Amino acid sequence: MCRHAAWLGAPRPAATLIHEPEHGLHTQSYAPRRQRHGTVNADGFGMGWYDPARAEPVRYRRSIPIWADANLPALAQVARSGCLLAAVRCATTGMPVEESATAPFTDGLWLLSHNGRVAREAVRDLADDAESACDSAWLAAAVFQRLRTGLDLGQSVAEVVVKAGARDPGARLNLLACDGASLAATVWGDTLFHRPAEDGLLVASEPLDDLPGWQAVPERSLLLAGSSGGVCVQPL
């Protein structure tokens, strides 16, 4: 299992997802409060953000525990964007622990994280190839392949989750994806919360703090958000 979080709104540093909140991803790596499977997320971490100087997102990921990277706190303070995605990883048994298996995965404008597990046999024919043998990389490749055909972010994520879930009834398929201007997330087997702010929207596997306003997204739902504000939640 894993924990992930995203921000869409006014520019802010990645540290606001990772280090600054009392229950940010750094804390969730060793003391998650709502994680249903696994207790420590020490098999890697990553973050992605959008810089005006680049056409594609910037990504930083490691296969070590997030607390073992002495350079991350300073980097997360200067990695500033209106669209952020970060994750810590608890690898599914049998899956490789390597950077290519660590979220966020990326292709063109898109970033994607997976919280859960799925039989690789359920997703391998949904994509032509993947950068890693792990289940999450194959899910990401399947979503990216649909995005390249012209489907929008929500349609691509929803189609992959529904197809994979039908083939593997025990799958856990919480995906979190963004393109710099919009965000899509699924709830399929684990928790997801969102909290509106005056200048944007937080989405996370579990609340990053104890402030009021966090709302649980119902099981088997798709959450959609755009830079213009507003959240849409619909059943999968």
Automatic annotation (TrEMBL):
User: Which Gene Ontology molecular function entries are recorded, alphabetically?
Assistant: hydrolase activity, acting on carbon-nitrogen (but not peptide) bonds, in linear amides; transferase activity
| Pathway(s) | Amino-acid biosynthesis; ergothioneine biosynthesis
Question: Which GO biological-process labels does this protein carry?
Answer: ergothioneine biosynthetic process
Q: Which domain of life is it from?
A: Bacteria
**Reactions that this protein is recorded to catalyse:** gamma-L-glutamyl-hercynylcysteine S-oxide + H2O = S-(hercyn-2-yl)-L-cysteine S-oxide + L-glutamate
Q: Which UniProt keywords are listed?
A: Glutamine amidotransferase, Hydrolase, Transferase
Q: Which Gene3D superfamilies does this chain map to?
A: Glutamine Phosphoribosylpyrophosphate, subunit 1, domain 1
Q: What is its EC number?
A: 3.5.1.118
Occurrences of domain Glutamine amidotransferase type-2 (ranges) = 2-236
The family database entries (HAMAP family) matched by this protein are listed as:
EgtC
Protein purpose: Catalyzes the hydrolysis of the gamma-glutamyl amide bond of hercynyl-gamma-L-glutamyl-L-cysteine sulfoxide to produce hercynylcysteine sulfoxide, a step in the biosynthesis pathway of ergothioneine.
The protein, known as: Gamma-glutamyl-hercynylcysteine sulfoxide hydrolase
Q: Which organism is it from?
A: Nonomuraea polychroma
Q: Which gene encodes it?
A: egtC
